[in-house]
Amino acid sequence: MRTLNLGILAHVDAGKTSLTERLLHAAGVIDEIGSVDAGSTQTDSLALERQRGITIKSAVVSFVIGDVTANLIDTPGHPDFIAEVERVLGVLDGTVLVISAVEGVQAQTRVLMRALQRLRIPTLIFVNKTDRAGAHPGRVLAGIAERLTPAIVAMGSGSGAGTRGCEFRPYGAGDEAFTARLAEVVAEHDDAVLAAYVQDEAGLPYRRLRRELARQARRGLVHPVFFGSAITGAGVAELTAGLTTFLPAAHGDAAGPASGTVFKVERGPAGEKIAYVRMFSGALRVRDRLPSGRGSPLGPGRDGEQRITAISVFERGPAVRRERVSAGQIGKLWGLRDVQTGDTLGVPPPGRPRHRFAPPTLETVVAPSRAADRGALHTALTQLAEQDPLIALRRDDVRGELLLSLYGEVQKEVIQATLAGEYGVEATFSASTTICIERPAGTGAAVEIIDTPPNPFLATVGLRIDPAPAGSGVRFRLEVELGSMPFSFFKAVEETVTQTLRQGIRGWQVTDCVVSMTRSGYWPRQSHAHAHFDKSMSSTAGDFRNLTPLVLMDALKQAGTRVYEPVHRFHLEIPADTFAAVLPELARLRALPWAPVMRGPLCLLEGEIPAAQVRELEEQLPGLTRGEGVLEAVFSRYQPVRGDIPARSRTDHNPLNREEYLLRVARRVAAR
Ligand SMILES: Nc1nc2c(ncn2[C@@H]2O[C@H](COP(=O)(O)OP(=O)(O)OP(=O)(O)O)[C@@H](O)[C@H]2O)c(=O)[nH]1
Ligand SMILES: [Mg+2]
């Protein structure tokens, strides 16, 4: 049996979950088609998802098409839950990108397509909702070519768009316009086809064109487009057939070394951790032992092991108990107490680049409604953050506050409801504020040598910080030999670098930089001339933990930093006659619109707006547009803050002031 790990991706509400139901029904996994609106689908199984009619967490179900087991991952489309999509991207063999035939290409569709193209994930496009009033498949197809990618081929045409009787008719060898289009598109990516095409346009046999299309689609170069409706079922059979033809289902390498990626972690009814793993090669079995600790450039930690206590594997619907999960499959693992989303199990999977969407740009202060719930709130938020690595939790030691980073207001409401429903903790959330970042303005380097004043610690640490491309995050590398010092000391430096950069010179997270360790040195236990071991004369990991922040902040001060604020790209549809009222409001909110496009009674405006102002625009819009304005905004980039730099309260204490820092370290040591 071959396997296909298939993602369903789209802008919110395009019909991913409804299409999933249809596919499951067509494959005979379910007898009745569930409905999002009635809260009866397979993949929207959380109570909150059923109440709200939106997907919040990614969910896996499987079905069989011919000799292929497809593991389908239904993802949320709301931008507040983009983190769920990010994790899933690394484990997919192919995707279906769903686009509504009424709304067409939307803001999130573009964000997703960019990621899919970057990762070269083979993608079919399904234009859904052709039954709905206002459906316009032709216009949507043109929109895809114009706004997503020109490398598309419509696989058929629709009739009866906008009615329940809509149908999809696949094209065949007799459709001349289709074969001409096919030849044109596949010739783009293959020189042999191009040569044959130039020689004789009509001379390429249809079967060769189809074969070439399949080959290119499976490599993510060309995207077949299908049309239909998840509600009436139109076009779903053709899409299903397309999944095995145009996406790369494969036999996994079951004999290879075990290699898997954890893309989701949830807690079971008794609070136990359950990890969802996609295996790339080899197999994991019940009772297998795995090293605990997270992956890093220095390799896994060496502190203990964890054991798999149970496994279930997705087969024809939900997961069933099995002794092993092997190459190609998706399984749920129990027993891995330290596991986190994004972990590698076994050897790293072969060359899969990672795509990172923008990190959360908002922050809120969370407080328990009852003072007695303080501890419970902290525990609950820690557990939620563990399932959601992008959702960072910070504690402001000065004000004694808990801060949570967020993508948006819907996510805030979901977290609030989860705290109440699953943990029994009522909590209040302050109005959200934007999170800025700091990037190094240049290069800086510093070093402190062991036993050389003013260095009070038994360690030598040299660090250099260099700026790196936007979006690349923080990378730590060694310019000294790994064997020159005990592993645990390097590990201590690496971890402390990450921690220290959480707050730069102005208090914001420092990112998009490379930190290189340029000097290292320590005193081993035996090197001391005296006969007996003297703890005060030999280096410990603590020396490295205490010294690293001093060196790093010196390097950072030398490099200097610049503060950047998040900016969103917006798409605004307003009645044309309200343009004159909307424009000054955009200016007041520091938005920069590009030239407006008039389409009949509508005015379409695109542009950029600081993330901090999006919520206010949302609030003002109904009043300015008689309630008819529609706004979409997604993160676009960071731009340097002009004028006053917003301050951030400090939580952990970076050594901006050396004396103060050393005093704090001394106090901490004395307290032990
Ligand atoms: N008329 C019509 N309605 C549809 C179709 N597909 C989905 N819908 C409706 O559109 C709404 C959203 O459908 P979902 O399947 O939840 O969309 P989704 O993409 O999973 O949404 P999120 O997961 O929240 O991003 C529901 O009210 C569906 O009933 C379709 O083909 N035709
Ligand atoms: Mg959904």
Layout of helices and strands, plus pairs?
Elements (H helix, E strand, L loop, with lengths): L1 E9 L5 H11 L20 H6 L6 E7 L2 E7 L7 H8 L4 E7 L6 H12 L4 E6 L8 H11 L4 E3 L1 E4 L7 E4 L5 H13 L2 H9 L6 H13 L4 E5 L8 H11 L12 E9 L5 E9 L1 E3 L3 E3 L13 E3 L2 E5 L4 E4 L1 E3 L3 E5 L9 E3 L15 E7 L5 H14 L5 E4 L4 E6 L2 H15 L3 E3 L3 E2 L2 E4 L3 E5 L11 E8 L6 E5 L8 H14 L8 E2 L2 E9 L19 H19 L1 E15 L3 H10 L3 E2 L3 E3 L2 E9 H14 L5 E11 L17 H14 L1
Parallel strand pairs: 1-3, 1-4, 4-5, 5-9, 6-9, 25-29, 28-30
Antiparallel strand pairs: 2-3, 7-8, 10-11, 10-19, 11-18, 12-17, 13-14, 15-16, 15-18, 20-22, 20-23, 20-24, 21-22, 25-31, 26-27, 27-30, 31-34, 31-35, 32-34, 33-34
Helix pairs in contact: 6-7, 6-8, 12-13, 14-15
Bound molecules: guanosine-5'-triphosphate and magnesium ion (MG).
What are the key terms here?
binds guanosine-5'-triphosphate, 7-stranded mixed sheet, globular, alpha+beta, binds magnesium ion, 16 helices, 672 residues, single chain
If you had to describe this structure to a student in words, what would you say it looks like?
With 672 residues, the protein is α+β, with helices and mostly antiparallel strands. The protein has 16 helices and 35 strands. It has a seven-stranded mixed β-sheet, sandwiched between helices. It is globular and about 85 Å long. Mean pLDDT is 90; it is low at 295-302. Guanosine-5'-triphosphate (GTP) binds at residues 10, 12-18, 36-37, 54-55, 76-78, 128-129, 131-132, 229-231. Magnesium ion binds next to helix 1.
